[in-house]
Design brief:
It is built from 20 helices and 23 strands. By secondary structure, it is an alpha/beta fold. It folds into 4 domains: 62 residues, no CATH class; 184 residues, 3-Layer(aba) Sandwich (Alpha-D-Glucose-1,6-Bisphosphate, Chain A, domain 3); 134 residues, Alpha-D-Glucose-1,6-Bisphosphate, Chain A, domain 3 (3-Layer(aba) Sandwich); 137 residues, TATA-Binding Protein (2-Layer Sandwich), CATH 3.30.310. The strands form 5 sheets. A 6-stranded mixed sheet has the order 1-5-4-2-3-6, sandwiched between helices. A 6-stranded antiparallel sheet has the order 18-23-22-21-20-19. A 5-stranded mixed sheet has the order 8-7-9-10-11, sandwiched between helices. β21 and β22 form a beta hairpin. The longest helix is centred in the C-terminal third of the chain and has 28 residues. Its cofactor is Mg(2+).
């Protein structure tokens, strides 16, 4: 029996749509017979011999979708895996897009960046005794391959020298595109995903990821790619078709971040800050900025070296997860640190823990992404106001799922708040671009000179218009200065957060993940959202649903679709609950990178009133905590019931 016949027989035992099986067989046959894929053949044969039919079906049933910013997923063999072919097709599509976007412009230029990842088959999918073209494949090698595709298409790519020991983190890439006046960029990173994943994110000439309808145009061009032009990286380098990045953009980026300082340099050892890049690129941005500004960050030695396997990180290198900072917390305790700062592998996200005692001898409290958003928004507005540097009509930008405390804070300072954006910093960047080019965004009027800060609940901060993506470097500096400002008053960031809750109301924000894996999970996720939009619940967690909004409604506030990518991004439901002192909100959307739907839950209270006893305030906050859990449990139960499922034990567990 030949390989395709074996695969057909093997797929027959899998409960999946027949059309998907047929597509997998077609793709499998191409990869097994076409000379371009000859290097992959031994591993494909081995998977067939091992009867790994589920793996093969998942690897070949589709070409990995080109999402709103690029492709991201498991590195491996097949069109539904990240490999040089799927990257090459994406880059070829980007070349076609750039030629259409900038007709007649020559030379077209792009900037390439990469993180620390290297594929080592941690999941043990492939036969280690056979040749494997994806084994040991690093983000650097992915990027060098991309440079060869750009060069073959007459587009000059700027990339770090092959022997460079440093990296270009995500915020620096955004800055460098603008600094070099390039026409676009590519970032090879899977952010905080597991080590065996990788991804490609494409950027425009503004240093941001594409938004509708431009992302739709590029996605269509990627889908239409039939031939990938490519020359070896070494040949492109010798022919002068690749530009090697020098240190000038990096130095300018560090100075840009330092310019965001609102306090100036601290005195020697005035604040003790532990910093860890968790084996990623953060040492080349956030770490350098803190050092240059005089904070003398204390390292976590076992996590300081770039390493794409993240060997000394608990769970995953994601600042949203407190456990990943356990080693930093030990160092912080030993050194009586005031603050712990961490960054994820591509250094766009920031994580933090604050000491509860101003002498550094207390325990540490994790600061959530929503708390970082509120704290840094208030701190920067307050310091600009104190120094007389606050714009007359300052602008604060945030998303629909970020804590409403940011909006209350902004309005306290007379800020114009753009607070209803979709998830993703490309929408923050687009709002900034519209202000820059037209002087308005919706009802907001102003320019980039009025911009103060942009935030997102997933530990993303943008504090300068010179960067058009999440930026851990400026955020780290602002956070260190916020801790310094509090310490000078004998206080901590924990005290600061308590003050914000009293002044602006206690907000409890939680993320509930509804995990639905595999092909069946994707279908169930679509069924679930459609059922909820067609028949939204009248009550959630004991509170009436006072309004329901489906962002896919073409007659709603977002208007007609700008394309399929826009429609996918707007697969977003908003349930507003209760009123006034019992206000709450649930937002539901499918994840763009993981097999789950995300439910964002917020319950908020009113500001503390003068004369309120401490025990009454504590009781009011505790009641909000109880309400959040009740809403989470009820919403999860209702959502799963739409697809005939019930929650498993602990499925409704929240962060605390």
């Amino acid at each position: 029996m030949d390989l395709i016949s074996q695969a057909r027989a093997g797929f027959a035992g899998i409960d999946a749509d027949a059309a998907l099986k047929d597509k997998a067989l077609t793709n499998l046959n191409t990869w097994f017979t076409h000379p371009d894929f000859a290097a992959y053949r031994p591993q494909i044969e081995s998977l067939c011999q091992a009867g790994a039919w589920s793996t093969l079906l998942d690897s070949f049933y589709q070409v990995m979708p080109f999402g709103t910013g690029g492709r991201r997923g498991s590195v491996g063999i097949g069109p539904n895996r990240m490999n040089l072919w799927t990257l090459g097709a994406s880059v070829q599509g980007h070349c076609e897009y750039l030629r259409q976007r900038f007709p007649g412009v020559s030379p077209l230029r792009v900037v390439l960046a990469f993180d620390v990842r290297q594929f080592e088959d941690k999941r043990k999918v492939y036969n280690p005794a056979l040749p494997n073209p994806v084994l040991h494949l690093s983000s650097r090698e992915f990027c060098q391959h991309a440079a060869g595709v750009y060069a073959a298409n007459g587009i000059q790519a700027a990339i770090l020298p092959p022997d460079s020991k440093r990296y270009v983190p995500t915020p620096e890439l955004s800055f460098t595109i603008r600094y070099l006046r390039a026409h676009g960029g590519l970032n090879m990173t899977a952010s905080h995903n597991p080590p065996d994943d990788n991804g490609s994110k494409f950027y425009d000439d503004r240093g941001s990821q594409l938004v509708p309808p431009e992302d739709q145009l590029m996605s269509e061009m990627v889908d239409e790619v039939a031939v990938i032009r490519h020359i070896p990286f070494a040949d492109a380098l010798r022919a002068g078709k690749v530009q090697l990045l020098d240190d000038a953009p990096h130095r300018a980026f560090i100075e840009l971040c330092r310019h965001e300082s609102v306090l100036g340099s601290p005195k020697a050892d005035e604040l003790r800050v532990v910093f860890t890049p968790m084996h990623g690129c953060g040492g080349f941005c956030a770490g350098e900025v803190l050092e240059a500004q005089g904070f003398r960050p204390i390292p976590v030695p076992e996590q300081a070296t770039p390493d794409g396997q993240f060997p000394n990180v608990t769970k995953t290198p994601n600042p949203e997860i407190p456990e990943c900072m356990d080693r930093a917390e030990r160092v912080g305790t030993e050194r009586h640190a005031d603050l712990i700062i961490s960054t994820d592998p591509d250094a766009d996200r920031l994580g933090a823990m604050a000491n509860r005692s101003p002498d550094g001898k207390g325990t540490f409290r994790f600061i959530t992404g929503n708390e970082l958003a509120a704290l840094l928004t208030h701190f920067k507005l307050a310091q600009l106001a104190r120094s007389g540097s606050l714009p007359a009509a300052p602008i604060v930008i945030t998303t629909e799922v970020t804590t409403g405390q940011v909006t209350r804070i902004g309005r306290q300072f007379g800020a114009q708040v753009i607070g209803d954006l979709l998830v993703g910093f490309k929408y923050h960047a687009d709002a900034l671009w519209q202000l820059e080019s037209t002087g308005q965004y919706g009802d907001v009027r102003g320019s980039v000179a009025d911009f103060v800060i942009a935030t997102e609940e997933s530990h993303g901060i943008m504090a300068t218009a010179g960067v058009r993506d999440k930026d851990s470097a400026c955020a780290a500096l602002l956070l260190a200065e916020a801790a310094l400002y509090q310490k000078r008053q004998g206080r901590t960031l924990v005290d600061y957060l308590d003050d914000l809750n009293r002044q602006f109301g206690y907000f409890r924000n939680e993320l509930l993940n509804i995990v639905l894996t595999g092909l069946e999970g994707k279908l169930n996720m679509a069924r679930m959202l459609d059922a909820l939009r067609q028949n939204p619940p009248q009550e959630i967690g004991g509170l009436p649903v006072t309004s329901f909004e489906d962002l896919q409604d073409p007659d709603g506030r977002m208007g007609p679709f700008k394309g399929d990518t826009d429609k996918a991004a707007r697969n977003f439901l908003i349930f507003r609950l209760g009123r006034n002192e019992q206000a709450a909100k649930v937002c539901l959307r499918p994840s763009g990178t993981e097999p789950k739907a995300k439910a964002y839950i917020e319950v908020s209270g009113q500001p503390w009133k003068a004369g309120t006893p401490q025990d009454a305030w504590d009781a009011a906050c505790a009641a909000i905590d109880v309400r959040v859990q009740k809403i989470a449990t009820d919403f999860l139960t209702h959502a799963l019931a739409t697809i005939g499922q019930t929650p498993g034990p602990g499925a409704d567990k929240l962060s605390r």
